[in-house]
Q: What sequence folds into this?
């Protein structure tokens, strides 16, 4: 497609490996179709780089349907780019104008070290989940649909929080590189459902503690995370996290080491 | 580490301490501001109010002073420590990051907080102990205010502090209810009308005193 193709200038962060020095490198992106997704535009640029014997730009991606949470880069200073509630793979080049300059950088956080170019290690999120983002009850075969009563409000809040895909845009957009929105989404998702109750407060303590251990910053309620979140997770979940944390800290006690009677 | 130690060590715990101490300080500000407005009721009434606080109920005043001192220290220490952690959390800065919804108030919390801390130290030395006051009189608080604001730089320093205070309250009051887990879920979580009203009333009420003195409305 030659007519209507976009000619852009990319400023891309290039870094050959972990702990290596990196820098912004400029690339032309010529004759880009407005129907392409942002990642397809990068694919096109990479084809050119490979053909000319250069190292292609590394970036994370998987489903390209906006549901897996693999992709995500800072595009012109905004996580996942300029479109609200949209992942980088679902962002289309029609959002840009011919002649635009586009800055593309990896998520920046000490807890998300760069592996290569735009790819960062988000293992810190996995470790926060491992600390308490689960329920231990054996689920068995499905129960009758109405055997666990749950209010519509709780179900709605839990489902909204469960929409989190763990992409890391909240950390990337936060001025403090805080993982509060991610952690709060998981705490809200499980803490508002009956199945999550037995471990609710232990979960809040353990996940918040792990969040600190990973070296994420704290929440100052700028609201940037909510704006950047491709799933529209609300900072109301952070209210829930803090409330559960307060109750947890006040009621925390040691688990009994010895067996109970019987 | 004890339970309290763990709470203080956690980023959420420290922020909760900031929210709780912030609520105490806002409560004090409202009473302090209302008390100050008695300046407009005349010298006799104002000096009597001052005598009540500094003499008649001095024991109660000291309880309040110690509570406020502990609150300010905890608020400032937690803010400093969290700021250092937050800066360390992003060792490599972005070449380009564009804030999308950050308010001016949220972006000036740290600088404003430092300004307010310096202001509090000066203000206590100015009108409570008289250390920085050119002609301090123990029983003539009304006169102390008139003389205290007679020079423009000092009046402007006070008004500047009230500017930062209004920004600090606009973000802080709204944030405190979220930090303390008290805010209800909202369709527009960034909305903060109560904080806006309180910020204008408190900072505006305080500002009336130096403004009235400079405009010659109180004698």
A:
């Amino acid at each position: 497609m030659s007519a209507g193709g976009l000619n852009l200038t990319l400023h891309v962060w290039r870094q050959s490996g972990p702990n290596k020095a990196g820098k912004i490198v400029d690339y032309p992106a010529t004759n880009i179709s407005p129907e392409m997704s942002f990642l397809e535009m990068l694919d096109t640029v990479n084809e050119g780089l490979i053909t000319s014997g250069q190292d292609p730009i590394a970036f994370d991606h998987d489903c390209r349907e906006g549901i897996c949470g693999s992709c995500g880069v800072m595009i012109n200073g905004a996580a996942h780019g300029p479109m609200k509630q949209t992942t980088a793979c679902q962002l289309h080049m029609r959002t840009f104008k011919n002649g635009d300059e586009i800055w593309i950088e990896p998520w920046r956080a000490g807890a998300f070290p760069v592996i290569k170019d735009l790819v960062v290690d988000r293992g810190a999120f996995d470790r926060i989940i491992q600390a308490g983002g689960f329920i231990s009850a054996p689920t068995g075969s499905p129960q009758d649909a109405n055997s666990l009563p749950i209010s519509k409000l709780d179900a709605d809040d839990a489902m909204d929080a469960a929409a989190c895909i763990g992409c890391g845009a909240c950390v990337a957009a936060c001025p403090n590189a805080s993982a509060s929105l991610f952690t709060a989404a998981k705490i809200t998702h499980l803490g508002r459902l009956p199945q999550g109750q037995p471990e609710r407060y232990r979960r809040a303590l353990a996940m918040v503690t792990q969040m600190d251990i990973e070296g994420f910053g704290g929440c100052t309620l700028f609201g940037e995370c909510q704006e950047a979140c491709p799933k529209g997770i609300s900072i109301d979940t952070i209210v829930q996290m803090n409330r559960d944390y307060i109750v947890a800290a006040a009621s925390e006690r040691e688990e009994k080491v010895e067996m109970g009677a019987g | 580490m004890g339970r309290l130690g763990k709470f203080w060590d956690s980023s959420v715990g420290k922020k909760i301490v900031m929210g709780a101490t912030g609520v105490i300080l806002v409560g004090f500000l409202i009473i302090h501001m209302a008390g100050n407005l008695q300046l407009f009721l005349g010298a006799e009434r104002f000096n009597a109010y001052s005598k009540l606080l500094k003499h008649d109920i001095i024991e109660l005043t000291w309880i309040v002073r110690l509570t406020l001192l502990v609150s300010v220290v905890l608020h400032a220490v937690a803010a400093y420590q969290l700021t250092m952690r937050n800066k360390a959390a992003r060792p490599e800065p972005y070449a380009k990051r564009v804030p999308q919804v950050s308010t001016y108030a949220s972006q000036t919390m740290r600088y404003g907080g430092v300004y307010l801390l310096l202001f509090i130290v000066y203000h206590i030395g100015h009108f409570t102990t008289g250390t920085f006051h050119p002609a301090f009189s123990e029983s003539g608080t009304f006169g102390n205010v008139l003389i205290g604001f007679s020079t423009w730089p000092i009046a402007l320093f006070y008004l500047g502090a009230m500017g930062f205070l209004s920004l600090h309250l606009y973000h802080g009051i709204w944030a405190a209810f979220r930090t303390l887990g008290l805010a209800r879920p909202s369709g527009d979580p960034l909305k903060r009308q109560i904080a806006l009203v309180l910020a204008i009333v408190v900072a505006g009420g305080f500002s009336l005193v130096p403004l009235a003195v400079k405009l010659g409305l109180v004698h």
About this structure: Chain B touches chain A through 47 residues (CB under 8 Å). DSSP finds nine helices and no strands in chain B. The mean pLDDT of chain B is 96.
